[in-house]
Backbone:
């Protein structure tokens, strides 16, 4: 696919409307709250459920995680315009899952573990946020990998 051309310069992207920044951040915040609530389930089930939720949530019906459904956004395939499926959701949210796994790997290291966690958190979120603000369509790294976009839902209360 048109290698070397910036992500949002593809002709397929011309038909999409960019989602508002604040709406995207509120939707992701809601999803992180859900993930955090799932993390509170005792034992290994909680972290596994929370990580699984953040990975697959954008592949729920209509390409809408709980946060996106509440706010009125959806994730769509850049190539087809169809709602994201579970596979695309996993691809686009993998950076967050990698970050969670990294936290578990280095979190046990006294002092240095917290520094490494903070550095990784700032790097991942910093890159993702910078891309959202600098890309013409607000595509973050995960969107580029999965070939997806976050767009306003036509009517976010309608079921497809």
Residues:
């Amino acid at each position: 696919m048109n290698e070397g051309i910036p992500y949002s310069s593809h002709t397929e992207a011309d038909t999409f409307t960019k989602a508002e920044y604040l709406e995207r951040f509120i939707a992701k915040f809601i999803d992180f709250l859900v993930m955090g609530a799932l993390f509170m389930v005792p034992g290994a089930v909680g972290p596994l459920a929370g990580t699984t939720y953040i990975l697959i949530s954008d592949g729920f019906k209509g390409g809408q995680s709980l946060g996106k459904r509440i706010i009125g956004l959806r994730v769509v395939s850049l190539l087809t315009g169809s709602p994201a499926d579970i596979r695309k959701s996993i691809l686009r949210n993998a950076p967050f899952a990698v970050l969670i796994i990294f936290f578990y790997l280095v979190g046990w290291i006294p002092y240095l573990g917290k520094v490494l966690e903070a550095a990784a958190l700032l790097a991942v979120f910093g890159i993702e946020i910078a891309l959202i603000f600098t890309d013409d369509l607000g595509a973050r790294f995960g969107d580029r990998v999965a070939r997806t976009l976050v767009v306003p839902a036509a009517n976010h209360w309608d079921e497809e």
